[in-house]
Amino acid sequence: MPAYTERMPAGIPGDVSRKSGAHLEPNIVGATPVRYGAPVKLVSGKVVPVGAGDTATVVYGFLVRPYPTQGDSAALGGGTAPAGAQCDVLRSGYMTISMKGAGTPAKRDQVYVRVAAGGGLVVGDIVATADGANTVAVPDCVFMGAADAAGNTEIAFNI
């Protein structure tokens, strides 16, 4: 068993970190695979990743990592849900997400999502710092603390 000398890992991206009180909604992934823990929007009744140029109002929730898994549509440890897969979307609650290197989150800081690529970041990356028209603030979504060494941290969405 590893010894944690500094801090335990914050969690696994897409995992609902506080199960009690979380509101999940069943959905189907659209034509584009989606990373677990990524903000998603609805297009023709299916969930797809937030895209380039999207506004904050399109964020529908965050894609939940399935556990336990059944079948091979979402293998344990896999990073994305494939097109057409059944999935759950966090509509309200707490989740571990993978934050990219833009900014250092602190408790109750605003969560931003990239809507334009640049500076080593891609559309859909979650960041802690606003970057003009390149990011949008996710409504009712805040960080719950600092990120671990891998960039994982907890968010509160729609609470």
Strand portion: 35-45%
The low-confidence runs, each spanning 5 or more residues with pLDDT under 50, are 72-77
What Rg, in angstroms, do the CA atoms define? Answer: 15 Å
CATH architecture: Beta Barrel
Give the oligomeric state. Answer: single chain
Number of helical segments?
Answer: 0
Mean pLDDT: 88
Shape verdict: globular
Q: CATH class, please? A: Mainly Beta
Distance between the termini: 35 Å
Short description:
With 159 residues, the chain is mainly beta.
Descriptors:
two-stranded antiparallel ribbon, 9-stranded antiparallel sheet, Virus Head Decoration Protein, Chain: A, mainly beta, 36% strand, 159 residues, globular
Fold blueprint:
Layout: E1 23-28, E2 34-35, E3 39-43, E4 46-49, E5 61-64, E6 80-81, E7 86-98, E8 110-114, E9 126-127, E10 135-143, E11 152-157
Molecular structure report:
The chain is built from no helices and eleven strands. It has strands spanning 23-28, 34-35, 39-43, 46-49, 61-64, 80-81, 86-98, 110-114, 126-127, 135-143, 152-157. With 159 residues, it is mainly β. The protein has a single domain (23-157), classed as Virus Head Decoration Protein, Chain: A. The strands form two sheets. Strands 1, 3, 4, 5, 7, 8, 9, 10 and 11 form a nine-stranded antiparallel β-sheet that branches. It has a two-stranded antiparallel sheet with strand order 2-6.
